[in-house]
Every structure is written in structure tokens, then in C-alpha cells.
Amino acid sequence: MSDIVAFNSVADEAAPQAQTDRVIAGPRGRKPRRALSGRNIMIYGTLVVVALYYLLPLYVMVITSLKGMPEIRLGNIFAPPVEITFEPWVKAWASACTGLNCDGLSRGFWNSVRITVPSTLVSIAIASVNGYALANWRFKGAELFFTILIVGAFIPYQVMIYPIVIVLREMGVYGTLTGLILVHTIFGMPILTLLFRNYFAGLPEELFKAARVDGAGFWTIYFKIMLPMSLPIFVVAMILQVTGIWNDFLFGVVFTRPEYYPMTVQLNNIVNSVQGVKEYNVNMAATILTGAVPLFVYFVSGRLFVRGIAAGAVKG
Amino acid sequence: MQNVSVSVKDLSLSFGAVTVLDTLNLDIKDGEFLVLLGSSGCGKSTLLNCIAGLLDVSDGQIFIKNKNVTWEEPKDRGIGMVFQSYALYPQMSVEKNLSFGLQVAKVPKEEIDKRVSRAAEILQIQPLLKRKPSELSGGQRQRVAIGRALVRDVDVFLFDEPLSNLDAKLRSELRVEIKRLHQSLKNTMIYVTHDQIEALTLADRIAVMKSGVIQQLADPMTIYNAPENLFVAGFIGSPSMNFFRGELQLRDQRAYVHANGVDFDVSAYPSRAPFVHGQKVVLGLRPEHVRVDEAASGAAASHRAVVDIEEPMGADNLLWLKLAGQSMSVRIAGQRRYAPGTAVTLSFDMAVASIFDATSENRL
Q1: SS3 B256
Q2: Residues B259 and B231 in one domain
Q3: How far apart are CA A64 and CA A83, in angstroms?
Q4: Are residues B17 and B161 in the same domain?
Q5: Is residue B320 included in any domain, yes or no?
Q6: Total domains in the fold of chain B
């Protein structure tokens, strides 16, 4: 013990004061970073410019929709509204005219809901089972089936429109919502099946084997084992389908009759109406209303999506 | 003769042009602990999956308890399986994981509870029953996975590298537990591993596999002491057996393996067939079957060598020496230390050595 004390005192004496000072004055702890470095200015500058570029049209849409027509006629599209009015929104929703109908977008909105909800549910239900069967139950001809399905995804839609019209007519569902739902379900199949197949193939194969040893069959494994582990991919599929089907214009206009036109078609008819004056404020409001649903889905389920990923990240 | 529990007859399996298993035959006795040992890609897991019914065989038959189960579903084979990744259902509690198979089989509720609590007691996982798999440690997860096989009251347990995902300490703990489990349950167990320590410690018999063929099927000590061919000899043992390629020479009533200018006297070797002069052979010596003396001993069969590297491992001390132009390892007691450069005398216990034909690679 005395040796150690002696050693310490010797060490203290041996360390010159200057050296100690230098050690204390030297860098210590977190390295300071300047907030306004050239790099940061470059990065944030670019981000701000890009963000402005994308937000500007939206800004114009929103402020135009809140102006009255006299104010719009002044021609300054970037100026904020002097007098805010919600009348264009009300008109776009409830009383804008397309041809003889003057009940605005509301009819199209409900049509779109009646198209999107069943199409999304049915296509996801079928595609998830498809993907599960392809990934886990390698049946005879599975590869061929999958290849054909994927090839289907690369053929342009437009090529198939007329044949589909004939098929729907022969089935007696041409011009009905059922027909359109059927078309959306079929066209969603390749990409959704691919999505689900890849997700299920990424789950540990041993889980599937363990369930089989436990005596679970095709549907038991699907509902009890696979489904509860697949929330994230179902959310992804839902976002894809809802936005895709809601934004669809071509199928909506080709395969349905005017009373079943989806919102997008209705919007087009309002905006492109050649009668009377162009009501820019109503057009802008109608456009925002139409785009609101996919945006809403994106914001709400986007958060759910991230949460789903995080929950799935815990290794089982 | 004990009853046969699992019997594999002329089993073949190929994926397209690749043959994984080729007319493989294997009989496993009732209550036996059989280990399938081999490096990855040797077909050991494939064989286990075939026995489990998770893979369709191309040809051949599988019998479990004298019943042909070749076309049966996994659940109807009376097997339980434990996987390397535990394969616990992540969304279910431990209790649900254990009872899932019984629920699928529509076993009455009271019976399920009884069996789950019994399995939980055996494996000491009662406090964990309400937890989710993600809240368990690796060792606890594997215990639950074993429990899942336990509750189903199966005839045969199949283990697919169950300890490979665990760290070294847990692995040795759980190894002991699996052995204890086997001793108390006395079920037939088939255990796939690439870890020779697991194989040697657990097995009643080991089947060493390579490219879909069983190289040797014997009890651990036979596998270790009398490997049937060069592959088994090199695969089992760490560090590996020392091999000397040479030629058999018979002179003065004695037999020698002449390798790289060094004569190894192998007269004491219990050869199955008489030695043939001039035969090309491989002499195999386990590191612990070499005697090391600092002073030159009088024994005629002694060789001089120089210590190259010393690897102290605590209980053992591993010496790397140069002999017959090649490096060889020698295992000695841990307290005996030799500095590199020390000249030593080696003598060999040829009664426990192995000699293989150089072309057929089979034991002589």
C-alpha cells in the first residue's frame, strides 16, 4: 500500500504542469458542429427549393378555390384571397353541373366509394391467398402460373379494353358497378400477388413447417399463422389499391354508364364543361376534393404502416 | 434386438437434376438418440424433413412404428419437430404456442391444460406461459419449441440443429437438458447437427453423412476411435486428426508407413487384413494419441521434432510441430509447457491409430 502511495506522489511530481494543462484544454466530449456550415446550407437550400417547386401548384389551387370569381378575374394567381369564401367548395360538392345533372361531385364520390371499397377488399383477399399458396405450397405448375400472372402485368391496359368490354357484355355485367369491380380486381392481381408472394416468402419457412407438424392445414395456417404476421403488407396493398382505383379514370369511363361514373370522371366532366363561364375556383375545389381521399388514406395509414413495420421488426 | 422405431428404406430424393439423397437406408431403434452429423449441404436436414413429411420423397419408403408413413401428412406421423430458428408463432403467447397443435387436433380443453402444464413443468417454463416469444431469451424460446413437441405426445422427436442459434454457454446448458429429457422420456430422437461435440455428447449412435450418403453409422466412441474412412476421420475431432500420406513397407518382421522420409512403425496396428508391401496408405494419428517427452527416450519408435507453436487452452495444451515435412498437432496436459523451438521426442500409440487405403480411403 505504501508503495502505491509513493508511486502516486512520484507520478504527480513527474507530470509537468504544462502537460496537464494541455490535456485539459484538448478536445473532449462531443465534437461541435456548426449549424450554418456550407454543407447544411447546400442541403437545406436544395430541399427548400424542391419543396417550394412542388407545393406551389397546391398553393395556387387552394387559394384559387377560396376566391370568388371577380377576384380571380383580376388575374393575379399567386395573390392570397382578399375575401375568403367557401362557396366554390359547396358548389363543387353539391351543385356543379355535368350535362343535365347538377348535383356536383357528391354522386361521383359515392360511386367511387362503392367501386373502391369492394374492389380493394376482394382483390387483396384473393391476392393474399394467391401469394401465400405460391410462396408456401409449391404446387405443380406454380412457377408457370406465376410467370403468366407477371407477364399479364406488362401488357398495356389499353390493348385489353375492347376484349374486356366483350367479355363483360357476354357476362351481362357491362356498364354496372359489378363489372367495374371485377375489372379492378383482375387488374390488381399481378402486382398484389407478387407483393404478397414476396412477403410470405420472406417469412421464416420453419414457421410454416412447424405449423404443418402441428397439424394445421392450408386455411388454418393462412388465418392463424400468416395473417397475424402480415399487417404491414396488407396496409401497403391497401394503399396501392385505394389510390390506384380511386384515381382510375380510363376503366371508370369505359366500363360504366354515366350514373355510375366515379369521381375522377365526374371531375373531368365538371372541369371540361364547355357551357357557361369557366369557374376556376369551383374547378380547383373539385380537384382538391377528388384528391383528398387518396391523400387522407396515405397520411392515416402511412403512420399505421410505419407502426406495422416497427412491430414486425421484433424477431419472433 | 430392440424394436425398430423409424425405418428409412431405399430413400431417394432429387430436385430436378440434383440428387440429394440416393437410396439411403437407416434403421433407428426404439428409444434411441440418433444424431445425423455432417457439414452443410450433406443432406442431413433433407433426410429429417423427409422423415417429418415436410418434403415429398422421390423414391423409397419411410416407416414409423412399423407403419408406412411415406404418404402421410406430418401431423399423422407421430412426430414432433424442433427447429433451428425456434419457429415460435410470434403473435401467440407461450401457452398458445404450446397448445396450438392440440387445438388444431380438437383435443378437449382440460386435456390441453393438463398436457401444457406438464410440459411447462418438465421444461421449467411455467412463469413464461403468458409471455410472447419476443419477450423470451434464445434459450427460453428453444425450451418452448421443445415443449411444443412435448405436449403432442409423439413417438419420435426430430431436432433440426436446435442449438445452432444459441451462444456457446447456453448451448452447452441446453445440450445437457436435451440429454436429460431423453433419459427421462426415453423417446426416439433424431437430431441433426453439424457440431461434432453435440453429436458425440448426445448420441447413442451417430450417422456421419456426406453428399447424401451415410459414411458411418456407429456409437460415438467407435466413430471417434475407429473411423470407417478418411472423411469421417477428418471430420470428427478438433483439432483434426494428423494425416501422413505414405507407403506400406514390410521388413524385418515389422510393418512401417514410410512418409516423406520418416518411418512410422505400425506393427502394433490392429489391421483387418494383412498389410501389403508397397500399398499407398494414409496414416491417421489423433493429437492426443501422441506422447511427448523432452528428453530423448529409448523407445525405438520415437521421432524427434521441434515445437513450432504452442496453444495453451487451459485444461489442454496444444503443440504444433513439424514432422515428416508437415505440420502436426499434439494435445498434452495443460500444465506441461514447451517454448517454441524446443526439441522434443514423439512416440505414437499405433494400437489406436487409423490407417486408410490412399485410393479407396477406407479403413484397413
Answers
A1: strand
A2: no
A3: 11
A4: yes
A5: yes
A6: 2
pLDDT of residue A313: 43
Q: Which chain B residues contact residue A227 at CB under 8 A?
A: none
Whether residue B362 is contained in a domain is answered as: no
ipTM over 0.90? The verdict is no
**Shortest CA distance to B242 belongs to which of B308, B286, B290?**
B286
Q: State the Cα–Cα distance between residues B282 and B266, nearest whole angstrom.
A: 12
pLDDT of residue B299: 56
pLDDT, one tens digit per residue, over B186-245 is 899 999 999 999 999 999 999 999 988 999 999 999 999 999 999 999 999 888 999 999
Q: For cell 401548384, name the residue.
A: A57
Same domain, B334 and B202: no
- CATH top-level class for A106-312? mainly alpha
Residues 6+ apart with CB under 8 A from B29: B2, B3, B4, B5, B188, B204
Do residues B63 and B208 share a domain? yes
Closest chain B residue to A220, measured at CA: B104
Helix, coil or strand: residue A65: helix
- Would you say residue A2 has pLDDT above 60? no
Query: Stretch B264-282: mean pLDDT, rounded?
Result: 89
Share of chain B above pLDDT 70, in %: 97
Is residue B364 one of the residues assigned to a domain? no
> Which residue is closest to B53 within chain A, CA to CA?
A213
Number of residues that this document lists for chain B? 364
In this structure, are residues A204 and A291 in contact, taking their beta carbons and an 8 Å threshold? no
* Domain boundaries along the sequence of chain A: 106-312
Residue B138 and residue B31 share a domain: yes
Crossing angle of helices A231-246 and A280-312, in 10° steps, is 170
Closest approach of B147 to chain A, Cα-based (Å): 12
Query: Same domain, yes or no, for B228 and B273?
Result: no
> Which residues of chain A neighbour B74 with C-beta distances below 8 Å?
212-213, 215
B276 and B171 in a common domain: no
Mean pLDDT for the stretch of residues B121-142: 90
Which of B212, B235, B258 is where one domain is finished? B235
**Same domain assignment for residues B260 and B295:** yes
Return d(Cα B362, Cα A299) in angstroms, integer. Answer: 70
Is residue B197 included in any domain, yes or no?
yes
Residue A100 pLDDT more than 80? no
- Interface-testing mutation among B46, B55, B69, B83, with chain A (most A C-beta atoms within 10 A): B83
> Which residue of chain A has the CA closest to B150?
A214
How far apart CA B62 and CA B158 sit, in angstroms, is 14
What mean pLDDT value characterizes chain B?
89
At B298, is the pLDDT very low, low, confident or very high (cuts 50, 70, 90)?
A: low
Listed residues B213, B235, B257: the one ending a domain:
B235
Question: A255-307 pLDDT, tens per residue?
Answer: 988 888 999 998 998 888 767 778 888 899 999 999 998 888 888 887 766 66
* pLDDT at position A220: 94
> What is the domain extent for residue B321?
242-357
Residue range B275-289: mean pLDDT, rounded: 91
Predicted TM-score (pTM) of this structure: 0.80
Those residues of chain B whose CB sits closer than 8 Å to some CB in chain A are 49, 52-54, 73-75, 79-81, 83-91, 100-101, 104-105, 133-134, 145, 148, 152, 160
CB-closest option in A213, A220, A229 to B81: A213
